[in-house]
Every structure is written in structure tokens, then in C-alpha cells.
Specification:
The structure is a single chain. The chain is of the alpha/beta class. Helices cover 35% and strands 20% of the residues. It contains seven helices and ten strands. An eight-stranded mixed beta sheet has the order 3-2-1-4-5-6-10-8, with helices on both faces. It has a two-stranded parallel sheet with strand order 7-9. Helix 2 crosses helix 4 and helix 4 packs parallel to helix 6. The radius of gyration is 18 Å and the shape is globular. It starts with a strand and ends in a 14-residue tail after the last strand.
Length: 230
């Protein structure tokens, strides 16, 4: 299967790229500086481009079976809130996703997987109060853009999946994320590896088609030291 990953050099974009390659897919890594992924093993094509440029995205989408969108702003949230982003347009999620959707329609590519954020859209009212405060004070512009992104996906007419992870970590866990189409979560953390695995699953099968899926890590069960009960 040929899969395009848009935003392939970000944390989740890298994770889904690695998972897809490990599963034998032909992956095109689309990013402004994709050369950072040049050492990954597998059938990998590096394609430089900007998701906010229509021509770049149109060239990238053609010939693929599915597209995974993992766009976002990697700079400090506080810096972005106070000064704006120095390297990424503030509407990168919505504008990039709109370009992807339009290109997919033109080229007949149907399967779309998009990483969004827990606390947006269908899960807005489920967000803990402290996180609502952070969203309102620190992340307001990014959250507004993610709301627009989700609306574009839902109205696309494509075979879409929206993934809504909670707070992302770099833990190297191999346990699958708790994936809930009803918006239930097991906690407020999930690893990028878990998110990458889910995004790959969604691109390769139709289990969660036309669904918005909340992603969280299952709590680790406490274990007693050997001999503790003796």
C-alpha cells in the first residue's frame, strides 16, 4: 500500500512513518525538510514541500492509496501565544488539510487519516477544567485552527478518520493506545509511538471509518516484587 504522510518530521508524523515502513508499506514522507528521515529503513520516498502550498500538496497526493495528516506547530506554546510562530503559519492545520482534501478529490484518493487533538469538536465538553483553562489562555489560536481542520475533514466526503490524542509523551511503549470512538479516555497521557501505531492502523483498515477516536494510554498495572506475598 502506498501512503503519504503529511508532516512526517514531527513527533507523531515520524512515529506513523516508522510504523508504516515496518509493515511493508511504500511511504512518501512529505515535509519542508524531509531529509531528516533519510536513514529510516524500508520503502521510503522523501518529498520536500509546504502543506500550505496547493501545488506542493497536489504533486504529493497523486498516486497514493491513503493520506495521513500529522500537521502542527512544534515551537513552544508560550512563545507562539506571545510572539506568534516564527517558522509555521498559524493556520497550518486547517490550510494544509484543506489542500490535502482538495488534492485527494482531484486524484481520486479516498482514505484520509488526520491527527487532531482531544478537547476539540466532539470531545470539547469532556476536557478537564484545568486543560480547558490552558486551551483558552495558552493554545487558543491553535485550538481554533484545529476546530476548523476537523470541520474540513468531516465535510470532505472522503473515507476519513479523526484521531484525538491527549497529551503526547515520548515513552517507548508497545502497548496499543486505548482508542474510543465515544470519547472515553483512560488518562491524560499517550505516547507518540502509540499514536503513530493507531494512525497506521487507520490508514490500512476501515475499522474506524467516519469516526472521531480519542486516544489515551491505559494505566500500568502495579506489580508486586517477587516473593512479596510469601
Amino acid at each position: 500500500m502506498k501512503v503519504l504522510v503529511v508532516g512526517a518530521t514531527g513527533g507523531s508524523g515520524l512515529a506513523v512513518t516508522q510504523t508504516l515502513l515496518a509493515r511493508g508499506c511504500e511511504v512518501t514522507a512529505f515535509a519542508r525538510q524531509p531529509q531528516a528521515l533519510g536513514g529510516l529503513p524500508g520503502k521510503l520516498k522523501l518529498l520536500a514541500g509546504d502543506a500550505t502550498r496547493t501545488a506542493d500538496v497536489d504533486q504529493a497526493v497523486q498516486g497514493h492509496d491513503a493520506v495521513v495528516v500529522a500537521l502542527g506547530i512544534r515551537e513552544s506554546a508560550l512563545q507562539v501565544r506571545l510572539l506568534g510562530s516564527s517558522s509555521t503559519t498559524m493556520d497550518v492545520r486547517s490550510q494544509g488539510t484543506r489542500n490535502v482534501v482538495d488534492a485527494m478529490r482531484r486524484h481520486g484518493v479516498r482514505r484520509l487519516v488526520v491527527q487532531s487533538s482531544y478537547g476539540v469538536g466532539a470531545t470539547r465538553d469532556r476536557l478537564p477544567w484545568l486543560y480547558r483553562l490552558v486551551f483558552a489562555l495558552l493554545l487558543k489560536p491553535q485550538i481554533a485552527d484545529t476546530e476548523r481542520q476537523e470541520a474540513i475533514v468531516r465535510a470532505s466526503g472522503l473515507e476519513w478518520v479523526l484521531a484525538q490524542p491527549v497529551n503526547l509523551t515520548d515513552e517507548a511503549t508497545t502497548t496499543p493506545a486505548h482508542a474510543s470512538p465515544s470519547g472515553n479516555i483512560e488518562g491524560m497521557k499517550v505516547s507518540r509511538r502509540q499514536v503513530g501505531d493507531f494512525l497506521a492502523d487507520a490508514a490500512l483498515n476501515r475499522e474506524h471509518q467516519q469516526a472521531c477516536v480519542a486516544l489515551s494510554a491505559r494505566p500500568q498495572k502495579a506489580t508486586l516484587p517477587q516473593g512479596a506475598l510469601r
